[in-house]
Backbone:
C-alpha cells in the first residue's frame, strides 16, 4: 500500500492544504485607504481668505443627508363599551376570569365608543389628534401649578386655638416613642 503526499511549501514546510487550513492565523495587511479626488481650488485670492470650502474643512467629505424625521403616531385608539347577553355558565366564567368568549355571529349592543387614551367620545374628537399622546394634563384635572389650594376651614366665632407640642416623626426618637411602629 502506498500513500500519496502533497508537496511541501519551501517557506513554511507545510502542504498547500495545511496552508489553507492555517491561513486565518496569519495577520492580514490592512487595505490602504483610498484617497478621494479633491476638486481643484478656484484661483480667486479672496475665496481663500474668506472661508474654506466644505470639502477643504472636512477631510471625510460632505455630510450625509439628514434622515427624514418620523412623526409620532397621535391617532386615537378606539374602544367600545358594550352590553352582551350571556348564559349563566358564561357569566360565572366571566366573573371568575374577567374575560369570556362570545358566540360567533352574536349581536353586541354598543353603549359608547371612545378613545382609550384620552377617554373622549368618538363624535367629539374623531378628526383630531389624541390629547393623551400630546399632553395628558386633562386627565389629572388640568395644570397642577395653577390648581387652587385647599381651603382651611375657619373655626367658629367662640373657639380658641391652643397650640400643641411638636411631634417627632423622624429618627430613633420617633421609633422609641411609637410614632412609626404600632403600639404593643
Residues:
Amino acid at each position: 500500500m502506498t500513500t500519496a503526499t502533497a508537496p511541501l511549501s519551501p517557506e513554511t514546510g507545510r502542504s498547500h492544504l495545511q496552508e489553507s487550513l492555517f491561513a486565518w492565523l496569519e495577520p492580514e495587511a490592512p487595505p490602504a485607504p483610498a484617497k478621494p479626488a479633491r476638486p481643484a481650488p478656484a484661483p480667486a485670492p479672496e475665496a481663500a481668505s474668506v472661508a474654506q470650502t466644505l470639502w477643504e474643512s472636512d477631510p471625510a467629505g460632505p455630510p450625509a443627508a439628514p434622515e427624514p424625521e418620523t412623526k409620532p403616531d397621535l391617532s386615537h385608539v378606539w374602544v367600545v363599551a358594550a352590553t352582551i347577553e350571556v348564559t349563566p355558565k358564561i357569566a360565572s366564567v366571566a366573573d371568575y376570569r374577567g374575560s369570556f368568549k362570545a358566540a360567533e355571529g352574536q349581536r353586541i349592543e354598543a353603549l359608547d365608543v371612545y378613545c382609550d387614551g384620552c377617554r373622549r367620545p368618538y363624535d367629539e374628537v374623531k378628526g383630531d389628534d389624541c390629547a393623551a399622546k400630546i399632553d395628558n394634563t386633562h386627565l389629572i384635572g388640568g395644570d397642577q401649578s395653577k390648581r387652587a389650594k385647599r381651603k382651611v376651614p375657619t373655626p367658629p366665632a367662640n373657639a380658641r386655638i391652643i397650640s400643641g407640642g411638636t411631634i417627632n416623626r423622624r429618627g430613633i426618637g420617633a421609633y422609641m416613642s411609637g410614632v412609626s411602629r404600632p403600639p404593643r
About this structure: Helices lie at 16-21, 45-50, 54-57, 88-97, 122-125, 131-134, 171-177. The longest helix spans residues 88-97.
